[in-house]
Structures are given as structure tokens and as C-alpha cells.
Write a structure and sequence with these properties.
Elements (H helix, E strand, L loop, with lengths): L14 E3 L2 E3 L6 E5 L6 E6 L3 H20 L2 H17 L1 H12 L3 H21 L6 E3 L7 E8 L2 E5 L7 H13 L3 E4 L5 H13 L7 E3 L4 H13 L3 E7 L2 H11 L5 E5 L4 E5 L5 H13 L9 E7 H16 L19 H16 L3 E4 L15 E4 L6 H4 L6 E7 L2 H9 L3 E2 L1 E5 L3 H10 L4 E4 L14 E2 L2 E2 L12 E8 L4
Parallel strand pairs: 7-8, 7-10, 8-9, 10-11, 12-13, 12-18, 13-16, 15-16, 18-19
Antiparallel strand pairs: 1-2, 3-4, 5-6, 6-22, 11-21, 14-15, 17-20
Helix pairs in contact: 1-7, 2-4, 2-5, 2-6, 3-4, 3-6, 4-5, 9-10
The structure holds succinic acid (SIN).
Succinic acid binds next to loops.
Length: 490
């Protein structure tokens, strides 16, 4: 696919450090590949520790001026950035589809979704109240003041190349932090275009620095930030294994962390559910982004009384999903991000079949379409001993499990180290209350498959991490609280 942009300048290949577009110090580059075809889209800077250090130097230099600005001034700049994202929405969507593979309508949705975090935090940043603590002693006044935590390192994944960046960077900038950021090696182009727009919108030099790096070099870049005392906060979305590594390594400099890690979401359909609505909810939640979403249902528990009807209706709909490259106007499922991702899906489905599952639809790689396609799949008779139960498949595979009682399904749903999202379909409001209360997760879709919103707190419990993004709570992770006790007032 040839990438045609209205504004060619949005295809950036260099790092943004201290307000300047720069090559990696050693002039190294790495290729960004279109997952639909395997073709190289561009070569971008392959940064290393020296570039990471330069970014931190720039963020440190810009910190005091940015912190001293009025919240309204920062908000005004964020609002201009938001407007500019929307003005360039088609180009951003085209870049995103080319490097990530998601169909263009989904990429357009993500541009709007990603931009919504910038608008939201522009507003929230101006409403950052502290506390005047009720007086405890005569002559003394106690205050709690919220302050920017300092330099933030943002490390973002490839599945949402834009939204995961804006929901980290926008709150950090809104409260007065400066930022060093590294997007995933598979999808740096959207991120580079995005910070270019931020720079043009008036984000001052050094306040927002972003550099690209290959998988191997990325470890070095992040390692430098983890060791640097000046970086006070790390925000990361990605795997639990990497999240644990960041937590261990950042202990040396005691950084504050937000970790949005792996999920293994249960999707529970009770006998008393509206089956059509449950199927629609599952299609929205499971097959968004080709199933490459941390909150997407990984285990679908259906009660015996509606199991057959649910499975039949779901398989019929899934069989009609149109699998095609992002440029096909009818595409609903694009390629997976890379060959490794397809290998994992194949391994999971093969393991399930060996252990007694049956394929209702799909169940195979679509090599005839390109290097990284896998058919949308529904499998029945899934059981607890299968890989699809214990690991996040991160692909368009829906395994169905039959259950009989509420207690049983709560036990099964919680029987995982992860706790990001869950979905519950029931028309019984007492049951809804009981089950929502019992599920060990951070996000619940109750009779609803689409949960994402800039106005809602997003994040997990257990091995899915900690911290919340979006909503008014999304500012907290970028703040520290200073207590001021003023005496001599009597
Ligand atoms: C994700 O964590 O994979 C994305 C969640 C979302 O914003 O919907």
C-alpha cells in the first residue's frame, strides 16, 4: 500500500528532543513495516542511551518554566493541540492503519478517541483543587497542595498507537510535568506525527520529547530513564512481564509507577440475559482491533440454558466479518501486528483442539491474504487446562465455556492472576450487583461491550497493574501532595 498523506511533513523519521527534530546520536535507523504486506513504510531513528539522556536533559531544562505556567495557559496549548489533531485526523488515521493494520474506520475512531483525552485533560487540569484542612489547633493552618511530580517517562504499546499516548501525555502536561516518551517499535509513526502537532500547537521546546527505538535499543533507552534520578514517574502500558521488570528496576530510584498490564477478561452470559445484546456486546468487545486489546474478552462463559443459541448466533456473525487490509473500505478485521502474534494465536488454537475444543467458525491462518492474517474464530468446549484460558491470546479468537451456577462462574472468572476487565450480561439487577461486587477487576461492562471513554477511570488490579488513566482520577498519578502547616496565626 502506498501511504499518501495530505501533509507529507507528518511522516516524521527523526526524534523530537528539546524542540528540535534530530537523528539518533549514532545516526542508526530501523524500518517500520506495514503488517498487511510486510513492506517498509519508513526508516526512523534507532535511539540509544545518549538520546535518552538528551531527552531527559531537555525535559529537565524546560521543567521550571512549564510548571510555573498558569493551568489555563497550559490548557490553552492543549486545546490547540486537540484542534490540530482533529484537523489532521485523516492523515493520522492513514499513518496508524499503515503501521498498525487496523481498518481505516477504526483508525479514525481512535484518532477521535485519542484526541478526546487531550480535550478532557485540558479541562481537568484547570480544576485541580487541593485542600484546606479543617483547623486542628488554634493559630495553625494546614493545607494540602497538589504539585506536578516532575519528569515523566511514558512507554506506550502498539495496539492503540495514538490513544495510549494521549492518555498518558495529556494529563502529565496539563498538571505541569515535562515528558520523555518512547512509542512501541512497531508503531512510532503515529506518535511522531502527534508530538509534531503538539510542538506546532505551542508545547514549548523540551516539555515533550519523544524518541523511537527498536525492541533491543528500546531496552537501553528505558534503562537509562529508569536509572536517572531526575525521572520521577514511569507510566507504561504493555505486558505484565515488562511491567514487573520496570517495577524492579525503578526501585533503585524510587519512581512512582502507573502500570496498565495484561488482561484475561471473562465475558459472562447468564440464562436471563438478552442473548442478541450479549452477542452484539461480544462482537464489539472481542473483535475491536482484531482482538488485540487488553480489555477484550479472553474467556466467554455462557450458562447452559442459552449456550446453544448464543454459540449459534455468535458463530453466524463472526463468519461474516470481513478480513482485509486497512485500505479495503469494507475491512472489519485487519492483519495482526506481526508474525509472532499470529504464531501465538495458532499455538493457542492448536492446543485447544488437542485438548477437546471444537471450531465453530474460523480456526486457521489466512496466508492467502498476506503475511499476518488469522480468521475470526469461535471455539466451543473450551476448558480450564487450555492456553486460551490461562494466557491472553491477543487475537480474534473467542473460546466458549459452558457453566451452570453463579458461584461457579464467579470462581472461574476470578481464577486468573489478571484483573483488568470483565463483562456481565444479565437482566436480574440483584444478580448484577452481586456479580459486579465479586469480580476482581478494575473495569466492568454490565450489559455493555464498549467500555472505553476519556471520562472513565481505566486500569486494573492484581497482575493487571495499578494506577488509573482517564477521568478525574487520571491526574492523580502525575501529582505529589505537599502538606504545608502554617503557624503563628493566633
Ligand atoms: C487497551 O488497554 O488495550 C486499550 C483499552 C482501551 O482504551 O479501550
Amino acid at each position: 500500500m502506498e501511504l499518501k498523506l495530505k501533509r507529507e511533513a507528518l511522516l516524521r523519521r527523526q526524534n523530537l528532543i528539546g524542540g528540535e527534530w534530530t537523528d539518533a546520536v549514532n545516526h542508526a535507523c530501523f524500518p517500520v513495516v506495514n503488517p498487511a504486506t510486510g513492506a517498509v513504510i519508513a526508516h526512523v531513528a534507532n535511539s540509544g542511551p545518549a538520546d535518552a539522556r538528551a531527552a531527559t536533559d531537555a525535559a529537565a531544562k524546560a521543567a521550571s518554566d512549564w510548571r510555573a505556567r498558569l493551568p489555563r495557559e497550559r490548557a490553552e496549548i492543549l486545546r490547540r493541540w486537540h484542534a490540530s489533531i482533529l484537523d489532521n485526523a485523516e492523515d493520522l488515521a492513514a499513518l496508524m492503519s499503515a503501521e498498525q493494520g487496523k481498518p481505516l474506520p477504526e483508525a479514525r475512531n481512535e484518532v477521535a478517541y485519542g484526541a478526546s483525552y487531550v480535550a478532557w485533560f485540558a479541562e481537568e487540569g484547570t480544576r485541580l483543587y487541593g485542600d484546606l484542612i479543617p483547623q486542628q489547633q488554634r493559630g495553625k493552618q494546614m493545607r494540602a497542595v497538589k504539585e506536578p511530580i516532575g519528569i515523566v517517562a511514558a512507554i506506550t504499546p502498539w495496539n492503540f498507537p495514538m490513544a495510549m499516548i494521549t492518555r498518558k501525555i495529556a494529563p502529565a502536561l496539563a498538571v505541569g510535568c515535562t515528558v520523555v516518551a518512547k512509542p512501541a517499535e512497531d508503531t512510532p509513526l503515529t506518535a511522531l506525527a502527534l508530538v509534531g502537532l503538539a510542538h506546532d500547537a505551542g508545547v514549548p521546546a523540551g516539555v515533550l520529547n519523544l524518541l523511537s527505538a527498536s525492541r533491543e535499543q528500546g531496552i537501553e533507552v528505558v534503562g537509562d530513564w529508569l536509572a536517572d534520578e531526575r525521572v520521577r514517574k514511569v507510566t507504561f502500558t504493555g505486558s505484565t512481564a515488562v511491567g514487573k521488570h520496570l517495577a524492579r528496576e525503578s526501585a533503585q530510584t524510587l519512581k512512582k509507577l502507573s502500570l496498565e498490564l495484561g488482561g484475561n477478561a471473562p465475558f459472562i452470559v447468564f440464562d436471563d440475559a438478552d442473548v442478541e445484546a450479549a452477542v452484539a456486546g461480544l462482537l464489539a468487545a472481542k473483535f475491536r482491533n482484531g482482538g488485540q486489546t487488553c480489555v477484550c474478552p479472553n474467556r466467554i462463559y455462557v450458562q447452559s440454558g442459552v449456550f446453544d443459541a448464543f454459540a449459534r448466533t455468535l458463530a453466524a456473525h463472526v463468519g461474516e466479518l470481513h478480513v482485509a487490509p486497512a485500505t479495503d473500505p469494507g475491512a472489519q478485521i485487519g492483519p495482526m501486528i506481526n508474525a509472532k502474534a499470529v504464531d501465538k494465536i495458532e499455538r493457542h488454537v492448536r492446543d485447544a483442539l488437542v485438548k477437546g475444543a471444537t471450531v465453530l467458525v474460523g480456526g486457521r491462518r489466512l496466508a492467502e491474504k498476506g503475511p499476518n492474517y488469522y480468521a475470526p474464530t469461535v471455539i466451543a468446549n473450551a476448558t480450564s487446562d487450555m492456553l486460551v484460558t490461562s494466557e491472553e491470546t491477543f487475537g480474534p479468537v473467542a473460546p466458549l465455556y459452558r457453566f451452570t451456577s453463579e458461584d461457579e462462574v464467579i470462581r472461574l472468572a476470578n481464577d486468573t492472576p489478571y484483573g483488568l476487565a470483565a463483562y456481565v450480561y444479565t437482566r436480574d439487577h440483584r444478580r448484577a450487583e452481586r456479580v459486579c461486587g465479586a469480580l476482581e477487576v478494575g473495569v466492568i461492562g454490565l450489559n455493555e461491550g464498549s467500555v472505553a471513554s476519556e471520562a472513565a477511570p481505566f486500569g486494573g488490579v492484581k497482575a493487571s497493574g495499578y494506577g488509573r488513566e482517564g477521568s478525574r482520577y487520571g491526574l492523580d498519578d502525575y501529582l505529589s501532595i505537599k502538606y504545608i502547616c502554617q503557624g503563628g496565626l493566633d
